Amino acid sequence: MTIVDLTSFQLSLLCFEILAVACGGMLLGRFLNLPGFKPMGSTSGRLTYWPVEGFEVALLVSLVLLLAVVCQGILNQFFGEVVKASVQKKGLEVAVYGFATHGGGLLAWPVFYLLRRHLFAAYNTTPPTPTGPTPVRARWSIALLGGIITLLTALPIVVLVSLGWTSLLHLLGVPSEAQDMIATFKNTHSSLILTGMFFVACILAPINEEMLFRRGIYHFFRQRFGRSIALVVSASLFGALHWNIAGFLPLATLGVVLALAYERTGDIRVPIIAHGLFNLNTIIALLAGLSE
After folding, report:
1. Which CA distances in Å does 224 have to 61, 99, 171, 182, 257?
2. Structural domain range at position 88
C-alpha cells in the first residue's frame, strides 16, 4: 500500500472536494426525490420557444467552426513566430489559439443573427420572434447560486461515472491518458501564460461551449425531437469535442446535467457559471497535485 504525504493546502483542498461531493449527493437526492430527502419541487422547464429551422442551426454551427478557424489563422499570422519561439510553447498555444477559437465561436452569434435578418429581408419579411410572455431575467446573484448548485449536483455524478469509465477502459486495455490541456497546465510555469490559460479555460470556453451546445444544439433538438434525443445529441457532441477517450463519458454526463439546469432555469448563465466553476475546480486540483 502506497502512502501519500499531503501538504496542508492539499489536505484542505481534498477536504473541500469531499465536502462538495457530499453536498452534491444531498442535492442530487432532492432532485431525484429519493426516500429520506426533502423533494426539490417542480422540475418543469422554462425554455422559451426558439423560432429557427434546422438549416438555420446548421448555419450557426458552420459559422462557429468557420470563424474559429479564421480567427486562429489571423492570430497565427501575427503571433505564430512568437509562439513557436517560446520556451513554454504549449501553454502559449493554449492561451493564444484558445482565445481565437472561443472568441471566434462567440463572434459567430451576432454574425448569424445579421445573416438571418438579411436572408429574411430578401423576401421582404422579418425573422419570426418567440411567442408567449417574455421571460423575466433573474438577478446575477440568483444565476450565480444556480450555477453553484448545478456544479455541486454534477460533481458526485461525474466522479462516479469517471471512476467507472476509467475502470472499464483499463479492463478493455484502452489507454486513458489525461487531456493534453491538463498536462499543459501542469507543465506551464509562467504566471502570465497561466493567467491567459485560466481566462480561456474558465471564462471563454464555458461561454462559447454553453452557447453552442446548450443554447443552440440542445435548445433546438429539445423543442423538435424531445428531451431524450436532445440530451444524447448535445451531450455526445460536447464529450467528443474534447478529443479524449478518458474524458468522453464523464464530460458527456456533465453535459447532461448542464442541459437539464438550462432547461430548468431557462437561463443560459446558470450552465455557463457551473461549467466555468467545474473547469476551475479541476485545474486547481490538478495543479495542487491531487491527481497524483
Report:
1. 17, 33, 39, 36, 20
2. 26-35+50-129+139-287
